[in-house]
Amino acid sequence: MYFIFLIVVILTAIALVVAAMTIAKLIAPRSFNPQKGEPYECGIPTRGESWVKFKAGYYLFAILFLMFDIETVFLFPWAVVVARTGVYALAGAAFFLGILILGLAYAWRKGALEWK
Fold it and tell me: Which of 76, 90, 104, 107 is close enough to 112 for a disulfide, judged by CB 3.0 to 4.6 Å?
């Protein structure tokens, strides 16, 4: 019984995706010119080599931002129902925050938060 429901959901999802792509293809404006095929950065043609090295610090900073951004997404629902959940949920949230604090301490010690 559950497999039939799952198959119906999957087939409906596939049908909706195919329908959306077909409708977008049919009603999309079609105007072709050479400028649309050119790569650009902020409207200015690129000069020099396109493959340049980036410091790993940019990526580390972005990962740390995402880590603490996702933290707030996970903690908000918990904060809404904290009065009803009891001590067990409080311990779970403390454990979650403890792991995040350990990650922050590790990144701080490694110098990932210093913008050089």
Answer: 107
